[in-house]
Amino acid sequence: xxxxxxxxxxxxxxxxxxxxxxxxxxxxxxxxxxxxxxxxxxxxxxxxxxxxxxxxxxxxxxxxxxxxxxxxxxxxxxxxxxxxxxxxxxxxxxxxxxxxxxxxxxxxxxxxxxxxxxxxxxxxxxxxxxxxxxxxxxxxxxxxxxxxxxxxxxxxxxxxxxxxxxxxxxxxxxxxxxxxxxxxxxxxxxxxxxxxxxxxxxxxxxxxxxxxxxxxxxxxxxxxxxxxxxxxxxxxxxxxxxxxxxxxxxxxxxxxxxxxxxxxxxxxxxxxxxx
Length: 275
What we know:
Oligomer: single chain
């Protein structure tokens, strides 16, 4: 539910009444009907100077790629559908600000990362500054990533600072696999994220948590609007509902309604409205 407040300000000026409207609202956005699925439960740890390590600054920058097989996701109850966030499990954070930290993903038929760093991934988070914390570090995607239910997934993290720092890399809870599940590039220069050079591959991979939406679950209502203030009282509402709704019913809180997906509504009277 979003709360909309219209405040009427009256001013007499040269016998002329001027009535501007201040329109203020709060809009709560959330993806409903999602569930979390953990991939990897071992407690193997990297060191402050070893890789893979999505967070940390032993080198100026680092690109990590992880391959998650479809069978692992299926075993956790996931099927074809949207992934809304990805989390990494940090055992000991170093709390170093990472510049231009970015998460990218793609579907693949490859079953390991023995061929090294791959290209053609789609950005789902960032680039933005990020500082790690102890426990699960969640990255909410800018747009959901669709998993087709059968392909393997490659996940890439990358950042590039202008210097290195102590104590170096964050320490992760990791699991060991029977295939090369990770590869990485780390360097003291400013081209790490664009480089396709591979420094190494490993059988260890950080434990991850996927936020996934079951495509068979009902739609979840969500929306936003175009501005925080308006002098006219007119507001553009934008549907952000999940799981493909086929019809809409808006109640604007002032006795008016709409069945449009993205309605435009004008409030004519000052007051407080629940939409």
